[in-house]
Amino acid sequence: xxxxxxxxxxxxxxxxxxxxxxxxxxxxxxxxxxxxxxxxxxxxxxxxxxxxxxxxxxxxxxxxxxxxxxxxxxxxxxxxxxxxxxxxxxxxxxx
Length: 95
Fold this sequence. Notes:
Elements: E1 9-11, H1 16-26, H2 36-49, E2 50-52, E3 55-63, E4 66-73, E5 79-84, E6 91-94
Parallel strand pairs: 1-2
Antiparallel strand pairs: 3-4, 4-5, 5-6
């Protein structure tokens, strides 16, 4: 089984929201006009192409139209980047 390709970009976990917004721009997308379908594709490609620096945990969970990326660097709390569509409005929250 071939190994997955190396990520092309690295980002600091504290700046995951900014990294995702830059990724959207590179795809020609804007958060304000994102559809759930485009959001799913963008979040998955962000997961494939961008990696958090020094992360021991990097996982994507999908529940309905909510996409949550969980990241953790050793001895730091888990950080999340959540893309959701409450009422059809795209919302991106980093915590």
